[in-house]
Amino acid sequence: MSLMHRPTRRLGCGCQWRSAHGTRDVLCQRAPRTERTLPARERQSLFSTPWHRLAACAILVLALTASSGLASDGLLIQARGVLMPGGEIGEGAVEIAAGKIKQVSQTVDSDAIPHHRYETGVICPGLIDITGQLGADGQTAERSAPLQLGISTGAAFDAYHRHMALAMRAGVTAFVLLPNDNNLVGGAGVVCHTGSENGPEVISTDGPVKLSVAPDAFRLNVAPTSRAGAIDMLRKAFEKSRSGDSNTAFDRFVRKERVGIIATPSGADVLAAMQLQRRFDLPLILTHTADALDVAGAVAGARGVIVGPLAFGAPRRYAAAAAQFEKAEVPVAIAGGLPAWSADSLRTGAAIAVRHGMSAAAARRAITEVPATFAGHEGQLGVIQPGARADLVVFSGDPLDLRSRVLAVYIDGRRVYRAPTADDQP
Predict the structure, then answer these.
(1) In angstroms, rounded to a whole number, what is the distance separating the alpha carbons of residues 73 and 358?
(2) Element (DSSP H or E) covering residue 10
């Protein structure tokens, strides 16, 4: 007899027993069930009526809001210090409302709204890696042609990659997913969050356009095969864009509607890029570290320079690059190189730069405010000021002190990470 057709016996308690050999008596320890028919009104579930369902949803939303650290009327974060615009650490508390910074003040009434206190902490803007490859390493270049004028790295973004959580817990709240150095024009980058209420996400598709005159962009048997050929090809692309009416990301860069980041690993590459910048009046940001002692004075017309990543034991000419550009009054960002480098690489690079002559304020800005500006989000990311997105990290001390650890991370005003404490139950 098949299993589906085994005889069934109903017990007094309402249980059923199936036997491979037919029906048989089974001892049941439960009392027999009393059957009665309820009126239709009594049979209705608590959440079967529309207003009950609405009330349940409201309770759920309030619970989620409270657990995430953002109440409907705002949130106050208090700590020992706050990193102010300009890179100095001052005093104050940060009030958040609707995912943005409402005010920074020393006199906020902490009893009026929910608050989080960190007695010894320093509240900083979320760290930003301006040249990240998080979740898309090896997937951000199309090698079929050296000029990729309209593609975007957004299609390569992987929100489920484990590197996202590692970076977020290290205080990195945003990064620019850029094409790599393998094309003269690699396309446009996108600005991403490492976490949010809905997980990692692309928050802007209007990122910088990536260009390169690095050796990685040269081919063996197809143009360009040299720096001279690369510069000539870029020059022709700029001229064609100015004389045409197309509207790719590259064209908007040429029209100065968005910035371009150009890879220039050698001093000669820097000089060649600056010639293009002067000729076409381009909003160029250079990535360069090796020859800063020699070329710092030559980049005065650039929008800025990206240095790094930097590691302990780096030659002095690398470690002192950021200080040299600061002296030349060129805005400097420090790259983290995620995920190839460790999640702490932004802070490590900034600390190394300070040890070799960069001011502490400029170093803090180099991993927060300046990369946000380079990414096209000036005043919205990388700063603690009214109206900016509430992407914040609370460190146990100065972020340049590598002994400081991350206590909490907030993205869009919601606490997405809190470090374990001694009060936590196992």
Answers:
(1) 41
(2) strand 8-10
- Written as one letter, the residue type at 276 is L
- 205/253 same-domain check: yes
End-to-end CA distance of the chain: 52
d(CA 217, CA 288): 16
DSSP 3-state of 325: helix
Q: Are residues 251 and 350 in the same domain?
A: yes
pLDDT surpasses 70 at 88 = yes
**Residue 141 — very low, low, confident or very high, per pLDDT cuts 50/70/90?**
confident
Q: Is residue 95 part of a domain?
A: yes
**Residues 312, 95: Cα–Cα separation, whole Å:** 37
In angstroms, what CA-CA distances link 378 with 368, 372, 385, 414? 10, 6, 11, 21
Split into its structural domains, the chain has a count of 2
Non-local CB neighbours of 409 within 8 Å, separated by 6+ positions:
126, 168, 169, 171, 173, 195, 392, 393, 394, 415, 416, 417, 418
Per-residue model confidence as pLDDT tens digits over 398-419:
999 999 999 999 999 999 999 9
pLDDT at position 366 over 50: yes
CATH for 159? 3.20.20.140
DSSP string, 216-248: GG--SSSS--SHHHHHHHHHHHHHHHHHS----
Look up the CATH number of the domain holding residue 96.
2.30.40.10
- Do residues 191 and 363 make contact, with C-beta atoms less than 8 angstroms apart? no
* Rounded (5°) CA angle 391-287-409: 15
pTM here is: 0.81
Residues in the chain: 426
Kindly report the average pLDDT of the chain as a whole number: 83
Q: Which domain holds residue 65?
A: 53-125+384-426
Q: How confident is the model at residue 118 (pLDDT cuts 50, 70, 90)?
A: very high
Residue type, 147: L
- Band of residue 196 on the pLDDT scale cut at 50, 70, 90: confident
Which strands sit side by side in the sheet containing 332-334, from one edge to the other? Answer: 185-188, 209-212, 260-263, 284-287, 304-307, 332-334
| 30/32 Cα distance (integer angstroms) | 6
